[in-house]
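Invent a record, attention on tokens:
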Amino acid sequence: MTIEFYSAAQSRAIDRFAIEQQGIAGLLLMKRAGLFAFETLRQCYPQARKLLILCGGGNNGGDGLIVAQLAVMAGMEVRVHLTTSPQNLHGDAAKAYRELAALGIECEAFQPSQLADCDVIVDALFGIGLDRPISGSLAELVQQVNACGKPVVALDIASGIHADTGCVLGHAIRAQHTCTFITYKPGLYQYQGADYCGQIHFSDLFLDNEILHSQTQQASSRGLDFWRKQLPPRPLSSHKGSAGSATLIGGDRHMMGAIQMAGLAALKVGAGLVKVVTHDAHGIALTQALPELMCYPPDQLLPLISQAKTIAIGPGLGLELWGQQLFEQTLAQPESKTLPMVMDADALKHLAKSPEKRNNWILTPHPGEAGILLGTDSQQVQQDRFAAIKALQQRYGGVIVLKGNGTLIYDGTHMEMCLAGNPGMAVGGMGDVLTGTLAGLLAQGLPLFTAACLGVYLHAHAGDILAKTEARGLLPTALAETLPGLLSFSE
């Protein structure tokens, strides 16, 4: 299933289009949202009998008032806290309030004791419209909700999370479940949003595709199955030469393992020949550890590049003179301007010192490396990952893979977001395995963007398979060993 992501502004524009151009009543959409949220709440917490519903003064609060109506009619005990005077409500939210009042429910002033006397909290405070930090008494309310230990169901997005970036705006409610409506918002999955929004439940509120596609999506998530089908099956006449040759460059002293893991991954995704240019002292040890690798000293770099179908540079390259010279020699070769390349780790730091733009490479920075490439820091990158990856592509060209939860892949036109992966993958060496994976796919002739997307999804899903039995301490080598099983489905 393809998931499409829209910004908060786009989501509001789609909502307006449905109401103003398609004649769908706003109150009807609000009731559909409230019904979906209430049904989700009952499915997730079937034993819940007492609800505390926190409502803001906008349409998100109106959604919460609809949930309150449905809960009352289902015989549940409901308390509603409205952060503004009912007289300040407008439009559909005001109608929802009047309907709730007709059922005999009045909004109450918030008391901390209400948190202890409920089974589930419904967060309908802000939704996707929030664009400034939560402060004052509302910040205190958010802190009390987070401290009480009661489960929270958020409507559209956890209050305090920026819908476009996933940043916490001062303070944010930690929800166990979020019911999001009409569109998927990037902030549900980017940066801190994934930690605060919990499990995502989506409803398009029965809007048809003409309405949903009245805006152009910011990004898509097409999933492993889609990208796996882009790798064609091998003819019976295949041989190691036709399967592609990858040249991997890196592994300074004390960092032999990085280039070994990259080489292992390239082999595991099907590269026919994997040649490693590494430190003189590493050749025998690498060959003993992984006989399938062909290891060469740096003085063989130039002929190996001329024979390669793809180049990957960076794993264990280091920042000393040895790595710098290999980096400069590689980029100085005419073939490096036309052969598909993967650049990661220390190679990105060398690139940041001498920036250039090429359209034949995949750059795979984590947020810290992205910050170095942009002359800023990881915090600034994480504050707006979409803006960061666009700036990287504009400055350096090619395809950018911005790693992290909700990894982004961007080629200047298409944006893909990978929703797979897990925190157990936060261990040294995972990036080296991804580099090798991408190089192995490029060696087999896949276009840059296709190889980047397939490689990222393979890497993430392999991590998720391992996480089923090893939530922490996932080994990059074990992840590389998992890759062939994921690829076998395309054969």
Observations:
- The chain has a mean pLDDT of 95.
- The CA atoms of residues 357 and 395 lie 6 Å apart.
- The first strand starts at residue 3 and ends at 5.
